[in-house]
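INPUT
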Amino acid sequence: MLTEKMEEYLEALFKLSCEEDELSPTRVAEYLGVTAPTVLDMLHRLESEGFIRYSSKGKGSHKGKSHGRIKKTITLTHKGERAATTLVRRHRLSERFLTDVLGLDWESAHREACKLEHVISPEVEERLAEMLGNPDTCPHGHPIPDENGNIKEETEEIKPLCELSADDKVCIAMVDEEEPKLLQYLATLGLLPDVDVEVKEVAPFGGPLLIKVGDTQYALGREVASKIWTKKNRGGGAKRKRRHRSSGDPRKK
Amino acid sequence: MKEERLEQVEKIRRKAEYIFALAGNPNVGKSTIFNRITGMGVMTANYPGMTVELNLALTEMDGHRIGIVDLPGTYALGAVSEDQLVARRGVLQGRPDLVIVILDANNLARNLYLLLQFLDLGCPVVAALNLVDQADRAGIYTDVELLSEILGVPVVPTVGVRGDGLDEMMHQALELARAKEEYLILPFSYAMDIESRIRRVAELIQDDLEEIPNDLSSRALAILLLEEDEEFIEAVNEVVGGQEILEFSREIAGEIEEEHGEKAALIIARERHGIAGSIVANVQERREYGPPSLGERLWELTTSFKTGIPILVVVMALTFLAIFWGGGALAELFADFWESVVSSPVGDGIEALLGVNMFSQSLKWAVDGVGAVLEIALPYLLVFYVILALMEDSGYLNSVAFLTDRFMHRLGLHGRAVIPLISAAGCNVPAIMGTRVLSTRRERVIACVLIVLVPCSARIAVIMGGVARYAGWELALLLFFIVFAVIIAAGLFLNKIMPGESTGLVMEMFPFRRPSLVSILKKTWLRLKDFIYIAAPLIIAGSFILGLLYESGWILKLITPLQPIMEGWLGIPAVAGLALIFAFLRKELALALLLVLAAQAIPGVTESSSLLEFMTAGQIFTFALVTAIYIPCVAALAVLWRELGFRDSMLITLSTVLLAFILGGLSHLVIILI
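OUTPUT
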């Protein structure tokens, strides 16, 4: 049986493993704000219960060929991954519930959800998802894993805006950073990564594109549009590090 | 230039108790509000880049004198484009008591971005929620009180064109200015990690920086440094203790970038958008969209290629016809009135009073000059200005910019440049100033050259009032085609020879708006006023001087050196050369003086056929062609000089003169051959 502490660790490991290829105990310690020995303790416990593997990299663990130290990394087992995705699912569903139904702001919703995720039963989880209409993402835009622990894989390629056609609805993945001034100008107009964009019209013969962002329409020349990369869905996709979307609650004093 | 203008702010400050700055995104009706509250003239325009300079005015409210500084319409206060920089300097150096931010209720989230930036800078703010009538029709409802509460600033709903809510807005502003409250706590904050980093930089600034540029708050400066704002980095660098702070802020900005995977400036922009978005989610409700409005359908028709291009062609043709028929009819009307009621009695009166001598004869020239103003310039200008104002205010120019973007790239420009180019057909001067919206010098030089070649309303008057009226509309059309071809050739040529590449188009597109009659009439009047007060006296004085020269016989001495070029090369009477020279002051003079000359050369005939007896149709054509292309007028040359510097403005001027005479000569040759 998992304790709340163990669950915390699993969740942290899951999140970190989504972003980094190699996980070290020091990184985990840094992330959770605890000391390395504490982490090692817990890692051994999780390993003994079959949630993780903590070993040197590579298949057959050849021990120290010429160098004294072996680099050991942490990987989640299937069991560990299932446990973690269930937690993430419960956390993100709770967040949805707290913001959409109870009207909490994002930050408080996140804090509350951290507690709720440990006490929600499978039955409550199911009903919650049903009531919320099986949402795809949490309020911050992160995907919610389904009941089998699958997260929608976003492996689709990204396309420059100029290759799209009218009525395409996409999300900005990234903007070429060669021209910092253009980038900043686009940012002030609200053309930022993770922002939804609708292509209204594409003028023929290499003419400009008409796009809609929020309530505003912009005409973008092809040159500009070729520097803006888009993807079909929110979240994931392009190679990006952890992006935390701000809560920015206006009424916070 | 900027310092000079700010000196003017100081001047107004001495006269006024309070200074308010007006700020807002382009096209939110800011200029209309400025006109309303100051009751004096600034142009309103339906596109960005029209008011790049600061406009100033004095007004009174409840017995207090208030100076109003109209900042250029801008989306943000960064250092990335000129309009943004000018707006920012207007606030930081002009030091208004408060800023009135005009918000578009239809697009509140994007508009709030600017307001949040003002709050970040520590400016006291009053917000006007403008265009609420339009928003209402679009089914957007805003809880103004809640918005005010969340932002911590007074918010007043307004309808600028009708003047609704403007008194209340000024009241609120005055009250806030009188309270002279130091700005309290910001009503919003960024994500915790960003906020704490801003605080760390701000604390260091507080402790170690001897003097904060522009008296900003330490938080405001910290944000600017984290955004890597060039201007402030430079300013801080010069202050004692500055380098250390720059190093620290770079380090912190690096931390943010490390953690979020994008630059601190972008993260902060993202935060602002996030805050703006969540505020709007709190205060606005929208009903389901109804069927697309007429404006939206028009918009689709004019921007889609299949329908847009034919519409553009039809609009151009209609414009030409309206000027030809409308202007022509008005011209007849004015001419009849002038000849029957004023011209001959006044002429007789002058002779009766002063006798027949050199002076009285010259005075009669001046009277003919007034007639020329009425017959030629005024009617055609009037019609053209109404059409131009209609295109600007309805938002049609935006569609044109969208349609022509690809084509403009061939000329080394992009769609946005089409707006100054079209408005150049009104007057070259504001058009040249309007090129500041273009981001590179290369684009600005190309745009300026093309603008100078675009026939302004004065030249259109010469072409329509001279060529179309006397030599036939086919020739006038041909002349427009030639000028158009010259503009395109010049663009293609410059794009080829000038190093660099054209940049891209990024432009906000506005839906069509029902233009207000009052605004169109006001704009037309403002433009016409300039003509009546500046050009008309010049034409009349020019006629008088020309008359003196003519009556005294000096004219023969003056025109002798012109003879070889005028008669030999261009094949037009040498006297007409004088009209060309005078036209450097105002292009309207060219035809006006020519008519005066013709009227005098063939005594007794003041009918509209007079010009044809003085010159052939071919000669009129050549004359108008040269007038249309050679040097911009004095005013255009002056702004050109200011915008591009001595070398380039001279180069442009000389090449246009050369080009005009080459084309004029060719035209003469062709006429001889047929």
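end of record. The longest helix of chain B spans residues 305-354.
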